[in-house]
Amino acid sequence: MAHQFFFNPYILDNLPAPQTGFDVVQDVSEPRLRMYITSRGVKTFFVRKRVNRKDKRIIIGNYPDVDIEDARSAVQTVLDAAKQKPVTRRRKIKFQKFMDLYLEKCVRRGEDSRTKLERAIKRHLVGLFEKNVSEISSTDIQNVIENINGPAIAGRMQELLQSVFKFALENGYVKKNPVVEIPRVEQQRRVRPLNRNGLLRLIAAIEKMQDQNLRAAFLMLIYGFAPKSKIFAMKWEDLDFNHDMWGAHPLSYRAIVLLQDLPQSGNWVFPGRGGFHIIDPRVAWGRVAKCAGIENLTMDDVYKFLKRKLKWAPDKSDFQENMNNLLDELLESECAL
Questions:
Q1: pLDDT tens across 196-253, in order?
Q2: CB 277 within 8 A of CB 271
Q3: What is the number of structural domains in the chain?
Q4: Could you tell me the CA-to-CA distances from 115 to 55, 164, 218, 336 in Å, in that order?
């Protein structure tokens, strides 16, 4: 629950910043007005509103750029604007162009993952590219879905289209989401077997490996928060230990300690045969997973498990802090095992 008090300049100017995350305070004079205080000292006025059956936080502006009285006066205006349903735009837009807009605004993925998604869109949704978004019907979408081989891919494309048209609805390009009228594709999803205790057992099994190169590579799958293809292809020239960065990707503290202990010879952090990097050591991984008691565990399961739990942040230092906090939370009993 937010701390409640009468907003005035003296109190707001002297509010302490939290060590991590953010705090929320609430105005007694205008109870609908609240404020974020982040660990970096940024103070932001906002209001909460149920929009489309979801709790939405609407930003008014940063303090002191926005005066307290101006923020109080803006509350009702902001809430009234949130009640207005988006008006369908008269300007038509082709599905292909709208997909570019959706990818830009809504998709946060790594380069490899984004490339795979774009390739799947071009392969499976090409039948919709030349249609105007507002004119695409449930029948059009169902025909596209039915022509996709494999229920797993068809299901993922249907989920993608559900999100795409939800974005179109929220921004006034369509009057309704045509995907909601289509029965969901039945698919058997693989149950990923990893949990916190399994992760601890996995680390203990990796630590027992004799091969230093593979041991470090497998530990980086946990500490690096990146897919195996990127981990195994790490280059020394991309690492900046002065700023704790790997290209544009921040490194967790555990990853930094691990990497600094490795011999820095050659181009690749994890060299393989023939002067190239490690590619796919699935046999060695199978032995480690078996030793940990999770025989059907894949290397991708580790990345997916950590990615689901990691809180994304646009600021790199905040993102690095989230990585460190998550690893500390998951591995606090590591020594006990």
A1: 999 999 999 999 999 999 999 999 999 999 999 999 999 999 999 999 999 989 999 9
A2: yes
A3: 3
A4: 32, 17, 25, 41
DSSP letter string, 254-293: HHHHHHHTS---SSBSSB-GGGSB----HHHHHHHHHHTT
3-state SS, residue 324: helix
Is a pLDDT exceeding 70 seen at residue 281?
yes
Which residues 6+ apart lie within 8 Å of 15 measured at CB?
23, 25, 37, 43
> Are β-strands 239-240 and 249-250 bridged in parallel, bridged antiparallel, or unpaired?
unpaired
Q: Is 90 contained in some domain?
A: no
Identify the domain boundary among 148, 181, 214: 181
Nearest Cα to Cα of residue 46 among 32, 60, 65: 60
The tokens describing 254, both together, are 């555990």
- Dihedral, CA atoms, 282, 288, 292, 296, nearest 10 degrees? 10
Which tokens in the block code for residue 66?
């926005």
pLDDT of 88 > 60? The answer is no
The CATH number linked to 45 is: 3.30.160.390
Backbone CA torsion sign across 323, 110, 268, 296: positive
Paired residues of 62 in beta bridges:
44
DSSP single-letter state for residue 241: T
Strand 239-240: give its sheet, edge to edge.
239-240, 245-246, 249-250
Contact 44, 34 (CB under 8 A): no
Q: Are residues 220 and 248 in the same domain?
A: yes
Domain membership of residue 118 as a residue range: 95-181
Structural contact between residues 301 and 193, judged by C-beta atoms closer than 8 angstroms: yes
**Which tens digit of pLDDT belongs to each residue from 143-154?**
999 998 888 888
Q: In 3-state terms, what secondary structure has residue 114?
A: helix
Mean pLDDT of the chain: 88
Angle, helices 316-331 vs 196-207, to 10°: value is 90
Q: How far apart are alpha carbons 260 and 239 in whole angstroms?
A: 10
